[in-house]
Amino acid sequence: MLSRTAYSIYWMSRYLERADNVARFVAVNAHLILDMGIDREQAQWEPLVQASGDDEDFKKRFNAFDEKSVIHFLTFDAKNPNSILSCVRNARENARTLREVISSEMWESINALYHFVDRHSRKRQVDDLQEFFTTVRTANHLFTGLCENTMSHDEGWQFSKIGRLLERADKTARILDVKYFTLLPTPEYVDSPYDKVEWGAVLKSVSGFEMYLKRFHHANYRDVTQFLILDPFLPRAILHCVNAAADALAVIIEMLDVDVPVQNEMGKLKQMLTETDVDVILAGGLHEFVDVFQFNLNVVDDALYKSFFALDSA
Amino acid sequence: MDFCKYDTAGFYDELIGPDGKPRPGAAALVQQINELPQKDLRRRQKAAERVLHQQGITFSVYGDKKGTEKIFPFDILPRIVPARDWEIMERGLKQRIKALNLFIDDIYNDQKILKDNVIPKSLVLSSDCYLKQCVGLKPPQGIWIHITGTDLVRDADGAYYVLEDNLRCPSGISYVLQNRAILKRTFPNAFQTMRTRPVSDYGDHLYETLRHCAPVGVDEPNIIVLTPGIYNSAYYEHSFLAQQMGVTLAQGSDLTVIDGEVKLRTTRGLERVDVIYRRIDDEFLDPKIFRKDSMLGVPGIIDCYRNGTVTLANAPGTGIADDKAVYAYAPQIIKYYLDEDQILANVPTYICNDEKQRSHVLANLESMVVKAVNLSGGYGMLIGPASTKAERDSFAEKIKANPRDYIAQPTLSLSRSPTIVGERIEGRHVDLRPYILYGESIFVLPGGLTRVALTKGSLVVNSSQGGGSKDTWVLGGDERSMKDILSA
Fold first, then answer.
1. Which tens digits make up the pLDDT trace of A66-113?
2. Which CATH number fits domain B86-173+199-338: 2.40.160.120, 3.30.70.270, 3.30.565.10, 3.40.50.11290?
3. Best mutation site among B245, B267, B298 for testing chain A: the one with the most A CBs within 10 Å?
4. Residue of A101, B153, B284, B330 with fewest CB within 10 Å of its CB?
5. Rounded Cα–Cα distance for residues B28 and B193 (Å)
6. How far apart are alpha carbons B309 and B214 in whole angstroms?
7. Nearest-CB residue to A1 (from B54, B251, B267)
C-alpha cells in the first residue's frame, strides 16, 4: 500500500472519531446543565475548551466562554481545526484521495455526513443541536460498520482501526479532564448527589453508563476513573483502546514483515497503563496522569508516521 | 413534457428525423417518454442529479465562500447513434488512429513523410508540440497513442466530421460510465428494447491495453495511474479509472527513481512500477527534461522511459499530431501510411501560416471559426458569426503576428439532440467523443461522451464554457446477432 494512502486512511478514521467525540463533549455539558438545574448564565462552558487543548486559539478570537461562543467554536468554527465541521471536512478530503481504496458505501456515507454538517452550520442555537450531535455520532457508528463490512480487512483496514482507537483513547482522557477543569462550588461537593450526577453524565458521554452500573452499581470518583482508564472490556476505555490498537499494529507488522520503531513506543504506552492502578493514578493526580498519557500518545503517533507514512522512509 | 411540440427547427436532429418521426431504432425511447405521466420526466431528471450529488461527483464553485458544490450538468435524454452510423464511425476511427500512430513514430524516427514532401517539414518541426526529447524513441509494440478521445461532429448534411483528435490525455470517460449507470435506472425499458450496446467493460479493456505495452520481458506488470492530485479538475476520473482497474493511484510525490527504475513509496518499502497511465501533461512529467518548476512530475522518469524500464501511456510527444495545423493533413497522412482514403472526413481547415490561405481567412473572419493550433477545451477560439467587430480585429492582429499559431474552419451547423430545458424539450447542439484504445488491436468503445451546449443556440459544448453531458446509446441494430457484437 502507498505510504500516502495508509496515512490518509489513518487520518480519515481519526477525524471522524474526533468529530464524534466533540459531539459527545458538547452534548454531555448540555445535559449536565439541565440535570443540575443550573441557570444558563452560570453554566460552565470554559472546561470544554480547556480540555480540548485549544483554549489559546479560543481566547484569541472570542471574548467570553459563553454557551454560544463555545458551541460555535467546537461545532461550526471553520477556523478551529478541531471543530466538528473541520474534522468532517478533513475526513472527507482524506476519503476523496482514497476513493479507489475504500468502498463506495464508505465514501458516500462520509460525503452525506459532510453535506449534513454543512447544512446545519447555519444554525447556532444549542436547543436545535441535540439531534445534530446524535446524527454526527450515529454517522461515525455507520462508518465504522461500513469499514467492518465492506472493506477488505487488510493493511489499510488495520491502519483505519489504529487511527480510530488512538483518537478515542485521547478523547476519553480529555473527557475525564473536563471534570478537572470544572470548578467545584464547595469541598463538600465531592461524592455529593450532584457529584454523582456529574459522573453519570461523563459516563453517558462515552456510552458507558449502563456498562458501569453492571459492575460498580453507583457512581463515584475512584470507580469511574478506574473504569474509564483501566477497564479492558469497555470499547471506549483507554486500556481497551490501546490494547486493540497494539493488536492491530502487531498484525500490520506481521503482514509487512518489517521491523519498525513504533512497535517499541506502542509497547511503552501499553506498559504505562498495565503497570499502574487507580490509587496510584489518583495519588499522582488525574490531570497529571492524563497529561503524561497524551504526551506518550503523541510519541506513538509520531513513531507511526516515521515507521510507515513518511515519504522519505525506506 | 413530451415530443408532441418538439421542433427540429431545420437542424439535423439526432433523435427525430425531418418527417417528425424517430430515427431508425429510436422509436421505443420516444414512445416511453411520450407515455410518461406529466412531470415524470422532470422528476427523473432530479433523481439522476441527486444520485450524482450523493456520489460526490461534484466540483467546487470557484470563488464561492460558502463552499457550494455542484454537479456537472447532465441531461437524462440520451443521444442515439444508429447501428449503421456507428459501423462507419468505428471503421473510420480505427483507420485514423492506426495512421496517426504510424505518423508519430515516423516523425520521431525516420521522418519519411517529410522527406517525401507530403507535409511541409517546416510546419511539423516548428510545432510547439514537437518534442526534440522524443527523437529516436521506440515505445514497446510501436504504440504511442494508447488512449484517444476523438471529437466528432455532425454537420447539416448528416455526415460526421473529425473536429479534434485529442491524442494526449483525453478526459471524460468516467462520465460515460457514470451517465450510463444512471440511465439504466432512468429508462430501463427503452434501454433494453433498443439493445443499447454496453460500455461498462471499459476498465477491462483499458487494463489489457496497458498490460500489452509493458516493458519487454515483464509478464505481470505493475500498472498505476498517475494523477496531478486532488486539486486537478479531473481527479475524480483518475481515481475512478484506478478503481475500475483495481490499480494504485499515485501522485508524483509517491514515486521516485532509483537505479534507473521508477519506484512507488509503499508501507513495505519501494516497489517497482512497469506501466504508468499518466494523466499529467508532457511538460510537467519530468522536471529534469521539461518544465523545471513542475512539482507534479517525477525527476528522471523520462530517462527510465527511454531506457525501457517503464512504459508511459500515452507516450510523450504525441501532441505533434494534435497540432491543428498538422491535423489539416490527416487525409494525406492516412493515404501515405495506409494507402486508403479517409473514412471519416476532416473539417475543411485553412492553415494561416500559408499566405494564400491566410488572406482567405482574414477576408472571411465573420463566417469562420478560428482556433489556436495548440489549445483545446474551447480556449483561444473565435466563433466568427457570434463575434463582435472588436473581437475579429483583435484576432486578425494575432493571426498576422503569429500565423503559425492559428487555423480557421468554416462554421459548421452542428446537429442537435433533444434536451430538457425547464418544462420543455428543446433541441441543443451536440458533439461526440468516442474513446479508442490501442493495445493488441484497436478497440473503439461503443458509446462515448456526448457533450451538449446547454445555452440556446450556442455551439460551444466544453464543460468549462457552460456545456453539459448526455449518455450515448449506440444501438445494437436488428441485423447484428449478440455473437457479432461480442466478437466485434
1. 888 999 999 999 999 999 999 999 999 999 999 989 999 999 999 999
2. 3.40.50.11290
3. B267
4. B284
5. 7
6. 9
7. B267
